[in-house]
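Cross-posting from the modeling subforum.

Setting up a comparison between two proteins and wanted a second pair of eyes on the formatting. Protein 1 (sequence, then structure tokens):
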Amino acid sequence: MQREEKQLDMLLEAVLNRLNDLKHSIGVMIHRLETEYETINWPTFLDNFALISSHLTGLMKILSTEIGTPLRNLTVLPLMLTPERDEALLQLTEGRVPIFSHDLAPDYLRTKPDPGAESRQAAHEAKANNLTVEASMKQVAQYNKVISHVWDIISKAKEDWENESSTRPGIQQTSSMADTQALVAAVGLGNGLTAPVGPPTGAGVMIPPAIRQGSPMSAVSPSGNAPMGKMPSGIKTNIKSANQVHPYR
């Protein structure tokens, strides 16, 4: 009995070590994908993936060559169930399982599918087993016919594309380098542009701002007449002397 318990402890320790290595490798890979997604290269990603694959292979090898009593013959039973938060359990599971209650224990210790999923799987298996050979062969033939039709369409499209690519002389030119250079020279340097002869008809003469600002407002009017004098005001004013005594003083 002691020998079997010792072998079981050794097996569990080896499995836990391999699981910790696997968890660490997965965490490192996820961290790199989240932080180094712009600089990570394909060989580095393949190296991380190969490391995870090696840990999985080692874990499967340990489980396949079990030492002592096979794990599938053992039963895991909870020692204590409580609806309260267990800090020791939270620390032991690295924050994943805070409570080990009556409602959660079956889900954590379940080794078979959910009863509803198991019943649906059994119904599908029974339906597949009740299918006759003729019906199954007919369905397989229809499936192969659909696959062949899709394959023919893809193959024909591939052949048409290859023929079109082989017969195409090349990329058709849609621009002229000479015309582009002439346009750039005309816009940037004015090459090829001629100025009009004589002043344009109907255009006014522009006066520089300095001349406009320095000219007085009493300049000659556009009609050539002299500026108009001061117009007489129709309002009569009565200016009194300042030394006149106010009547209300």
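Protein 2 (same layout):
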Amino acid sequence: MKNRSKGKISPQCIFILCFCSFALGMLLSKRIWAPPESEGRITFPRRYNQEKKLSSVSDDCETKKIQEHDMLGEFNKANEAIRSLDSSIAKIRFELPSTKAFLGTRKMEDLPTMITTDSARTGIMIRKPFMVIGINTAFSGRRRRDSIRETWMPQGEKLLQLEQEKGIIVRFMIGHSATSNSILDRAVDLEDAQHKDILRLDHIEGYHELSAKTKAFFYTAVAQWDAEFYVKVDDDVHVNLGTLAATLAKQRLKSRAYIGCMKSGPVLHRKNVKYHEPEFWKFGEAGNMYFRHATGQIYAISRDLAKYIANNRPILHKYANEDVSLGAWLIGLEVEHIDERSMCCGTPPECEWKAQAGNVCVASFEWTCSGICRSVERIKLVHAKCGESPATLWGALL
């Protein structure tokens, strides 16, 4: 009996053992299954996952709000930039009139010279064309052409130099005969091969087709040269090229200038008279006068007007007289008619007196002959008495 009592465990030991087991279990349970804490409170795993998802969605919303705020800021910046640009443009527009007024008061020699490069042909700096002069001539006018070449029109290297340095282009203009490749056409081709100063037009030659020839000239010249002025002159008129260039340069700020000796006169309704107008009835009652227009011996028009004629040539009506036709094409437009009397001086002694007084004429001819009478024989005399010095042409500031 004594041995059995010694093998029993006391209640106190059992209590201590149980307490230690419980404490050990709590300790191990806390390390393995410790629930996460969120903002100081204990959450269980399932609830923790739900709150994590909600937190992620909330973060995405906050990010989108920040991005939208940034985009709104960028939009406001762009809007401010546009307003600033509009303000700058308005300021520039306000200042433009004063700039134009300033240019209007400048001397022509102070204006910048426009230069272009023709590297394909010469490799040197060449002036942009200032004016293109078309000398109206016919198949029968070989002697007249030669007389002009011997007087006021440069030849060979001088003609090329005039184009390159001064932007002045001078050409005899002539169309074709009614017969293709006729002896007349071949003769002109040979002449051009020799002198290189003829402009062939897509036009059938004929005295009563001068209005059509004028349209063909402007069309061809505008297509080939982008000049400031285009000049038409007859082959029995004496011209001082330097004085002509200086006269036109004074009008270069006018975009639609029609320059020449302005005239008027009765509409000739009777048949069998020179300059008869078959459509006289369009000008009103018999005895009415033509509207003011430049005489046909020589006149000049600015680039915009030449382009207008070139672009609208199919619908521009042709009257019997070429100068009347040109005046009719321009009279309905916003054109400045400039009456330049130095473009219609008489032959010596008139042009000689003016030259001696320092007022060299642009052009000289005789009204009785609508040109220089017997020009082949007399143009050399006119050139000797009324011609400008070479320095006037080569020293012209264009």
